[in-house]
Amino acid sequence: MKRIISTLVLLLCVLLAASGCKSLKPREDIYIFFTSDVHCGVNENFNYAKLKALVDDTKAEHQYVSLVDLGDYIQGGTYGTLSQGSIIIELMNELNYDVVTYGNHEFDYGMDRLRELQAMMKFKTVLSNARYSGKGESVFKDVPEYVLIDYGPVTVAYLGILTPSTITSSTPGFFKEDGEFVYDFYGGDNGNELFTKVQSVVDEVRKKGADYVVALAHMGSVTENQPYDSISLISHTSGIDVVLDGHSHSEISGVRYPNSKAEDVLMISAGTKMQNVGELIIGKDGTIESLLVSEYEREDETSKAAIEKADAEMAGILSQKVGELPFALTIADENGKRLVRTRETNLADFVCDATRALMDTDIALYNGGGIRKTIEAGEVTYGDLLNVMPFTNVLSSIRCTGQQILDVLELGSRNTQPVTLFEDNPVGENGGFVQVSGLKYTINTSVQSAVQLDDNGLFTGVGDKRRVSDVYVLKDGNWVELDPEAYYTVSSNRYFLLEGGDGNTVFDGCEVLIDQGPVDLQSLIEYMNSLETIPESYRQPQGRITVK
Length: 548
What we know:
The protein is an alpha/beta fold. The protein has 2 domains: 22-308, Metallo-dependent phosphatases (Purple Acid Phosphatase, chain A, domain 2), CATH 3.60.21; 321-547, Alpha-Beta Complex (5'-nucleotidase,  domain 2), CATH 3.90.780. The protein has 14 helices and 31 strands. The strands form 9 sheets. The chain has a 6-stranded mixed β-sheet with strand order 4-3-2-1-15-16, with helices on one face. Strand 3, helix 5 (111-120) and strand 4 form a beta-alpha-beta unit. It is globular and about 75 Å long.
């Protein structure tokens, strides 16, 4: 009798699969909550205490509830920087996450530290597109490509997908052994290698009985993420039902895109710093819906107490006063939309001036992605400055040619658009957008970028046309035209200057003047202390970068 029933069930599944329907429907609705790009913002916006309450309250009313994260959780704020990620992992354990994938910033403390953090994790981690060719042991040795979770008679597959641009958006040196890259994320063939790999994993989980496939994709959904964006992933694959998308910090409550078989796939993005919690509902009727939750009345007291304990541990250091500001130094426009990766801001001017002053160079450059948060007017504390520069990079200096400076400006401006927002979402962003001191330049967005990159996103050259023009250097208080043949001293954080961060290999082979100088945060502290008051000239951007 059992064999007859099994045969009938199998026949029914085959017929349903052939008709394009799901093989099974849940007995009850399945609720999947997700977070993304939290960047240590556990006590911001929605916050972890509200998230825990929301999930627990849903579990009290429904049988099938899960919590997942799409990456970039351990870096980007004081909790992460001061504990090298451990405080964040402890809080995530407290929230009982079920499945988590990796973002590019999970590697910011190095592979050894990531191994230590993995040992702390009480939740499952997944990543389907990591590859290791070294002689040691991969950090992903015990990380599966996917997990299958049963919700009654229904099985959902969760697979993690990490953007191949991770190598340049973290620290490239961390992915090397003996000077050679040993990690990669299937970044070849203009995205096709990635899509082929993901398709093979999807096919595998379908064969293993997955009724639904949910991709935890740290890839992004804006044009500058191409070809490794989630929309391209959908169009080049089949068998994925939902893409939960992170990396670009977009807020998308749910949009459907056709896959390679012209079937609609739902894509959702929850923003950053706990702006929203994503909610995916697989209905008992087989429908799939989504929404973004931006507020909740109740906070879980246990999680709230854990956050308060972490606050108390750091309060002594973070509350130390380092200066006063008569006006805000900002990374955003007047509506709070991030600008520092597309345009000059007054905080970027201040950071670059502080770097140039401390390192005593002709020019200072700074990647916009390394300047993370606005400093409000009033008392400025160590914590405020640490929020601006949470990565604790050391500063370095080199001697390079004017031509190399022209090349790095081209690299940084390759995504720049004539506008900074489209439908209220940032466009043209690039973490390697070059903020400057002792230098000024113009970007002509009508000229298509001719920057050339390799499969890992590292700079290899510039074609005939250039977007950047009118480049001037400050010399003895006057602006003089930059000479491509002349040599200049340049300072920045080591990540951007010497480690290939944001794909910047322009300065490879340059004479290194200071390899590992002071921590970047020290430049802000010393510069602020050197000024009795912050000059009015910093109230607005100083006109160093013109975009037309």
